[in-house]
Design goal:
203 residues; alpha/beta; 8-stranded mixed sheet; 10 strands; 15% helix
């Protein structure tokens, strides 16, 4: 009798529809005890850099880039188009999306690369610190550094092409005059350009 009861119980359980365990979304993956990744000047130290950040770029429309006609080995920045085009010594044109200076902070003209630096430190200018006393004297290399992992210095060193700790700013007028790039893009450009490279900035 017990065997029949046990068998009937097993058959009844098998006939009921299985219910999968569903877990709600967890939004605390970027919670570092109060430190915000987007706040490089928070009260807490930056989280450890476990590898390259996720790719935030949106799919770029497929279009043919017009010839820069600026000569090989030249960087051309189209400010309104938020695009940097590097023409390699072999004549290949590589276009990158960038962030440019805010209105009133944009510069146009011809300059050149004077130096490059891996994992640069960022030192806010005295005027920046006067406007925002929370800014530290220096931000060391790491995920909170506004210059990212590479910096390419132009002219007298006041203008730069560099990475960013805010990938969402790419494609916008967002900087104080410098040109921001995605991490993988600036690292690729860094390897190709050398001091002396001509840089032309158009509207």
């Amino acid at each position: 009798m017990r065997v029949l009861v046990l068998l009937a119980t097993i058959l009844l359980l098998a006939a009921l529809p299985a219910r999968a365990q569903v877990y709600g979304p967890y939004d605390g993956y970027d919670d570092y005890g109060g430190y915000s990744y987007d706040d490089p000047y928070g009260a807490y130290p930056p989280p450890p850099d476990y590898g390259p950040p996720p790719d935030y770029r949106e799919p770029m429309p497929q279009r043919r880039q017009p010839s820069t006609r600026a000569g090989r080995g030249t960087i051309v920045i189209a400010t309104r188009a938020h695009t940097l085009i590097y023409t390699t010594p072999r004549g290949e044109e590589i276009a990158y999306p960038i962030a440019v200076g805010r209105e009133g902070k944009q510069w146009y003209g011809t300059t050149r690369v004077v130096s490059k630096r891996e994992h640069p430190e960022w030192r806010p200018t005295p005027s920046m610190r006067q406007k925002n006393p929370r800014l530290p004297a220096v931000v060391r290399p790491g995920p909170s550094n506004p210059l990212g992992t590479r910096a390419i210095y132009l002219a007298d060193g006041l203008l730069r092409i560099h990475g960013t700790n805010d990938p969402s700013s790419i494609g916008k007028n967002a900087s104080s005059g410098c040109f921001r790039m995605y991490r993988e893009d600036v690292e690729q450009l860094y390897e190709m350009v050398q001091p002396g490279t001509r840089v032309i900035v158009h509207r």
